[in-house]
Structure formats: C-alpha cells, structure tokens
Design brief:
single chain, about 375 residues, alpha+beta, 2 domains, six-stranded mixed beta sheet, 11 helices, about 20% strand, elongated
C-alpha cells in the first residue's frame, strides 16, 4: 500500500504542476454593437494577457508580469494578430476593420487586453456573419463568447472550432439557438474544469462502499450504490445551481480569489475525507455545502461576458443545463466502472485511498497557487 501511495502521490505532483493554471478554460469576450440605421459596427474584444503572451510574446523582459508599457509597445502586433483572426461580413460583403485603442481590464481570472475597433460595412447589415479563429491553432479548447447588440436588443453565441463561423439574422433573434449554444458551452466548461471534475470524482469514489465496523466495505447491490450516487449528485446540482443563478443575476457575489481558493479547498477536503474518513454517511451534505462554492465558479463565465438582462435568462438556463449534462456524462462513465471494481482487493488501497491522495496533492497545489499567489513553475 505504501508503494501505491508513493507512486500515485508522485503522479499527483506531476499533474498539479501541469494543470495549476488550467482551472479556468481559455475564453475571450467579443462584444459587437450594430444598428439598423448605421453601416458601422462598434466592437470591443477582451483577450486574456496570458493567451496573448503565448500567441504573440508580450512579456518583453520575461519577468512573468505584463506591464502597460509592454502592452502598449506591442499594441500594433496584438491588433494585427487578433484582427487577422476575425472576419465580419454584412449580407455577404466583407466589412473593413479599423483600429481603436488598446486598453486593459480585469476579469475573474486575471488581466485582459481590451481592443476597441470599428467595422465599416457597405450598408447597414441585415445578416451579419462572424468568423472567429483566435487561438484555435494553439488551444482547441479556447472559446470566443460573443455578445451581439442590435438596436438595444442582445443575443449571445459561443464561437468554437466546430462553430467558428456563425451568421445572425439581425431582424430576428433565435432564442433556441442561443440556448443550445450555451448548453454546449456548459458541457465544455465542466469537462475542462479539472477542479469541478476532481471534486465530483472524490465524492463518487466512496459511493460504491459503505462504512461498517470502522472500515469501508463494498455495497451489496447496484441499487444501494445508485441511491448514494443520486443523493450526492442531486445535492451538488441543487446547490451549485442556486449560487450560479444568484451570482449570474448579480444578487450575490464573492471575490474571484476567494471563490477559486474555496473550490480548491473543497476538492482537497473531499479527497482527504476518503483517506481519513470523517463524513461516512450522508455525503450529500458535503456535496451540497461545497457545491455552493462551485456555483460561484460556474457563474464567472457568464458574469465576465457582461450579458444584458434580456439575454441573460436564456444563456443562464442553457449554461446550467449544459453543466448538468456534462456532469451526468462523468457519472455515467465513472459509476459503472467503480461499481465493477469495488469488490477488488486493489479498489480501496489503490483507487479510493491512492486516487484520493493524488487528488489531494493536486488540490493542495491549486490552493497554494490560488490563495497565496504562488506558482509552481
């Protein structure tokens, strides 16, 4: 058992080093404002400084901190890089983009460069085609979150490698299309949100066991395991849906650093509970309590997009449904596997204890990095 723990802990350290900065997916925020009476489209594009450093190389002195001077010095290169990867056309005719200012802003996950620009079209657009190709060659998981305003009405979309070019009828908004796009983004977010995944897995690992006589023993039937899984997953779903909704609507809010640190801490405590059991019954209470923190993390994506009220309800509903579908996909893969393995001699020492130890190592590294601002590189 000690050998198992040794190697799995070393694996956890390696994973932590490679994913410490990856708890939030790579997104950019593209805002376009069009009018039925104007051929010009005003644009604002918020791109993460960390992404620009990878793509362009903005940090001139290599000290790990991008200053305003470095950003200003590279503003032309940044604009050339970004605009070359954005195509706008009105009714089949390409619009010509002119540069504006390069500013800075802060989102929930750090600093962003803000590119102001104007797209000059031949006539007021009736159908607007948006082609988005930023960072897809570097990071296929990157997403562009579009907020399109037309005469005060808003619609949203998620631009991905699979849907890099999208066309919008500016006279008619498609709520169904907007809903489905945010469903897909919710699924994407949970599948690339390593902290949310590890928290869920930490809760599922003991769900096929029962605490009896001071130790874990396999559950007797699939029904017993499923009842435990349903209780945990339902509690987690309800709790993070509550805070996701409240935070996205602006009713409550917490500082990003506190939320991200709290998520890492929740993963750490859930994993350690599998190694040194403290909560052995009613694990759904643990899932509900920590799920409230995870909901604030999910909400950061929608909050950073800055959606107006008339677009928020559909986007929020679609995103939340997507998160639940992504979570369900994880459950359908993990639970049958661990149910089959639960009675094997290696399940408790290697998978439950060893796997949870690796998760705890990763979560501890995340917590240090997020709470104290220390990196691993």
């Amino acid at each position: 058992m000690n050998t198992w723990l040794k190697w799995i802990a070393l694996l956890g350290i390696g994973i932590a080093a490679s994913t410490a900065q990856a708890h939030k997916p790579s997104d950019s925020y593209l805002t376009l404002n069009a009018s039925s009476s104007s051929s010009d489209i005003r644009g604002r594009w918020d791109i993460a400084l960390r992404d620009l450093e990878i793509a362009v190389g903005v940090d001139a002195n290599g000290d790990g901190a991008i200053t305003w001077g470095e950003l200003h010095l590279n503003s032309a290169q940044i604009f050339d890089y970004a605009i070359a990867r954005l195509d706008l056309s009105a009714d089949g005719t390409a619009c010509v983009v002119s540069r504006g200012d390069v500013l800075t802003d802060t989102h929930s996950d750090g600093g962003y460069a803000v590119l102001d620009f104007t797209a000059h079209c031949a006539a007021p657009p009736r159908a607007l085609a948006v082609g988005y190709h930023l960072l897809f060659d570097i990071d296929p998981s990157h997403r562009g979150l579009l907020n399109l305003g037309v005469d005060g009405a808003a619609r949203t979309a998620v631009l991905s490698p699979q849907q890099a070019v999208q066309t919008f009828d500016l006279a008619h908004a498609s709520r169904g299309r907007q809903f489905l796009q945010f469903v897909a983004d919710g699924v994407h977010h949970i599948w690339v949100g390593y902290d949310h995944l590890l928290f869920l897995i930490s809760l599922l690992l003991p769900a096929v066991l029962v605490w009896r006589g001071g130790r874990w023993v396999p559950v007797g039937t699939l029904r017993s395991a499923l009842l435990s899984v349903i209780a945990v997953v339902t509690a987690f779903t309800v709790s993070h849906s509550i805070t996701l909704t409240l935070a996205a609507l602006g009713v409550v809010g917490l500082p990003s650093r506190l939320v991200e640190s709290g998520i890492a801490l929740s993963v750490l405590l859930a994993a350690l509970n599998n190694v040194w059991p403290q909560v052995t019954r009613r694990a759904w209470i643990l899932a509900f309590a920590f799920g409230l923190v995870h909901g604030f993390g999910f909400a950061s994506v929608l909050n950073d997009l800055g959606l107006p009220r008339d677009a928020l309800a559909v986007s929020l509903a679609g995103f939340n449904v997507g998160v639940e579908l992504g979570q369900l996909g994880v459950v359908l893969v993990v639970v049958p596997l661990i149910f089959v393995l639960r009675a094997r001699r290696m399940y408790r020492p290697a998978i439950l204890v060893g796997g949870s130890t690796a998760i705890a190592v990763v979560a501890a590294a995340w917590f240090v990095q997020r709470a104290l601002g220390f990196g691993l590189s």
